[in-house]
Amino acid sequence: MSQTLVSPANAVFDAAAFDESVMYTYGRFPLALERGQGCVVWDTEGMAYLDFVAGIATCTLGHSHPALVEAVTDQVSKLQHVSNLYYIPLQGELAAWLTKNSCAESVFFCNSGAEANEGAIKLARKYGHTKLGIEGMPTILTANASFHGRTLATVTATGQPKYHKGFKPMVQGFDYVPYNDIEALKMKVASLNAYGPKVAAILLEPLQGEGGVNPGNAEYFKQVRQLCDETGMLLMMDEVQVGMGRSGKLWGHQQLEIEPDVFTLAKGLGGGFPIGALLCNSKADVFQPGDHASTFGGNPFVCRVGVTIAQTLEQENLLENVRERGEQLRAGLAELVAKYPAHLAGVRGWGLINGLVLQPDAAKAPIDIVKAALEEGLLLVPAGASVVRYVPPLVVSDSEVNGALAMTALALEKVFG
């Protein structure tokens, strides 16, 4: 991709120069974004787009939210970073809010979802050795079609072979089971534990985001919780994409009416600023000084961001907005599914993480719909091989949802005729 984009202020963005200098790890759309307000972003040519990607389920408060602008402006004038060798009051404040509002009792801060999941993997291994008496390599079970990150350990934990291609040998100590299939899970655990404890933890997403916006089954997860209680295994939940209110509840596992031993956060916790978090109960809290660390994790600047997002979620009653706008979005998408039954299979999701599902034999791919929506002024993103994902900021309005539905209708008319 190579082109020159010119902004109204005559500031030139040279895509060719960009591509020459930045490592080619993304297949980018021909769009250069330079500013945003709420759920709208503008490109370097002054064109406006309705943002239903939100940095891939990240911009909780949208773009340039006044509370966030005020907080980061104030904080950067005071203190942006110090070492975790010292107490950081804002880190304690954010951790206190997280533990007060969840089943967790302690928090470790890092920089991303992958790092949070790396921390969970290390925690599970130490727990397996010290609490379950596992000799040799502890095993962590994850689900087929899962996604847990791009580091070598988290991409191994990811149950999608396409992400493993070119990076073998993968990290040892992982095995996979079908999602939402309790009998398959029980058989796997029984097989691995046949000659003594080997499985240290089960790591699952409450809703598989990258795997196609596939929600967990509540009865399945209740039985997973029971199995972990019976065996001593940790139940770990990857909430990187659904945490901080996106599901319509503060935590995705609340949709399943269970409490995990460990869960991980990122994306919505920082609203676009890099922060991740590993949360656990006292049973799983086996780290000691020196076991794990992060240079940037939990610094004053990003914790001020996290505190501001948490406070704004409460002050603006955003969970109710997520539930109402989510119902509105799913209802509108269902009408479009009814209009194109030969091409569209349905709608699934929670709150403001929703997927428009294509028929298994559809001649078109999600990317075709995403590109057509872009031409109409709507930003969307695929999820897996057959789903178009809708993950707008949690501040999205009813009129903006209607606008997204109208633009989707135009895009589908272009794609399907």
Question: Please, could you describe this protein's structure?
Answer:
This protein is an alpha/beta fold and 417 residues long. It has a domain of 248 residues: 3-Layer(aba) Sandwich (Aspartate Aminotransferase, domain 2), CATH 3.40.640.10. Helix content is 36%, strand content 19%. It has twelve helices and 19 strands. The strands form five sheets. The protein has a seven-stranded mixed β-sheet with strand order 6-14-13-12-9-7-8, sandwiched between helices. The chain has a four-stranded mixed β-sheet with strand order 3-4-5-17. A four-stranded antiparallel β-sheet has the order 15-16-19-18, with helices on one face. A hairpin with a 2-residue loop joins strand 15 and strand 16. The longest helix has 22 residues. The two termini are 28 Å apart. About 1% of the residues have low confidence.
Largest sheet: 7 strands, mixed
CATH class of the domain at 68-315: Alpha Beta
Average pLDDT, all residues:
96
Computed over alpha carbons, the radius of gyration is 22 Å
Shape: globular
State the CATH superfamily name of the domain at 68-315.
Type I PLP-dependent aspartate aminotransferase-like (Major domain)
**Distance between termini?**
28 Å
Tell me the number of strands.
19
Structural class: alpha/beta
Low-confidence segments, given as residue ranges, are: 5-10
Give the strand order, joined by hyphens, for the main sheet.
Answer: 6-14-13-12-9-7-8
